[in-house]
Design goal:
By secondary structure, this protein is of the alpha/beta class. It is about 45% helix and about 15% strand. Helix 6 (about 85-100) crosses helix 14 (about 310-325), helix 8 (about 125-135) crosses helix 9 and helix 10 packs parallel to helix 11 (about 210-220).
Length: about 350
């Protein structure tokens, strides 16, 4: 299949298709167009030019030059987008194309990140059905997001060539590229403490979650009391961030600083503050990821940036090396986060919280 055929199927120019396939940061004017192009590429079994030539030469000459890659998204379904994982998926899509591999399937299965649901489901059957959907085109699997331990073991047994991209370590179950969630959280909470905050809340998942552990350990390190009512477990969506801030605005005892485990829930909180323009409760809010929307908020969101581009590139390189027999032992690549200071955080003493009220 060619770029021209994808363009005809979607109804766009070949140049637009080429830009989308090669550039994860390319912005399509039409909402949803990027996803339509990649969906068409998978439906048409699109093969990059050099890989197509290898396939036409036959299996005898192909010799591992062309691989079929599947991607499993564990933190979102097709109807509910977390921008961080969407941005990371776009990077990995382009890396697959760059290395002349074939993206054959993308699954959106939040089941795999939910321990309770995994315990209730027949995981062997779910994984068997997924493998069947790939129709044998499954040389390697990239898992994006947190994955249940039992499910990960079963996926690794089925696929053999697996790499995980995540904030939570797989404890050397499979090759992984990680930006350590504990360190990310510690960096964020340390910043709030440096600004004088002692009443620090947490918004995000708690069970088996590295970022929550990092939050707890940092409070303990600084001998700061943990207020259980400041810990709010959520599914980390914009809507829940908005709803929780609404509740806090009507609460008598609130944290002065809040660490949100991801940007999108923090953005929900900021949008709530901007709607109600409450001049009496303006907490400092910090999060982690640094999605594109973070710098377009009012105020701009302070966050810990995760190196998405490097995470995607190293994931693809690790998977390629394993598929080619380059390494046998489990490899872990850990990348560092970077604190991005914007104006959603202020010191306790400064009276600039009214910046929220524009």
């Amino acid at each position: 299949m060619s770029i021209k055929e994808i363009a005809e199927k979607v109804g766009v120019s070949s140049a637009t298709v080429s830009r989308v396939l090669n550039n994860p940061n390319y912005k399509c004017a039409q909402p949803g167009l990027r996803d339509k192009i990649w969906k068409a590429a998978m439906e048409l079994n699109y093969v990059p030019n050099e890989a197509a030539r290898n396939l036409k030469m036959g299996a005898a000459n192909q010799r591992n030059d062309t691989y079929y890659i599947n991607v499993l998204m564990t933190r979102m379904d097709a109807d509910q987008s977390d921008p961080f994982f969407t941005e990371l998926l776009h990077i990995i899509e382009s890396e697959i194309h760059k290395h002349m591999c074939i993206l054959s399937k993308v699954w959106f299965r939040p089941l795999f990140s939910n321990d309770r649901k995994c315990n209730a489901e027949k995981l062997d059957q779910v994984i068997h059905d997924m493998y069947g959907e790939a129709e044998g085109k499954c040389d390697g699997l990239i898992i994006i997001g947190k994955c249940n331990e039992t499910a990960l073991k079963k996926l690794n047994q089925k696929y053999k060539n697996v790499v995980s991209v995540n904030r939570n370590s797989t404890n050397y179950e499979v090759d992984e590229v990680t930006c350590d969630g504990e360190k990310i959280a510690a960096m964020a909470v340390e910043h709030l403490i440096e600004l004088g905050h002692r009443k620090i809340g947490y918004l995000g998942e708690c069970h088996n979650e590295a970022r929550y552990n990092g939050y707890l350990k940092t409070l303990q390190k600084h001998e700061i009391e943990l207020h259980q009512n400041y810990v709010i477990e959520t599914e980390q969506t914009e809507a829940e961030g908005f709803e929780i801030m609404e509740r806090l605005l009507h609460s008598g005892d609130c944290p002065t600083g809040i660490y949100c485990a991801n940007d999108i829930s923090a953005i929900g909180m900021l949008k709530c503050l901007n709607r109600y323009k409450n001049r009496y409760y303006m907490p400092s809010i910090i999060s982690s990821d640094d999605i594109e929307q973070a710098q377009n908020m009012t105020p701009m969101l302070t966050t810990v940036r995760l190196p998405k581009e490097e995470m995607g590139k190293f994931a693809m390189l690790l998977l390629l090396d394993r598929m080619k027999g380059g390494h046998k032992g489990v490899v872990r690549v850990e990348l560092e986060g970077t604190l991005i200071k914007r104006n959603s955080c202020t010191s306790v003493e400064e009276s600039v919280w009214s910046d929220y009220c524009i």
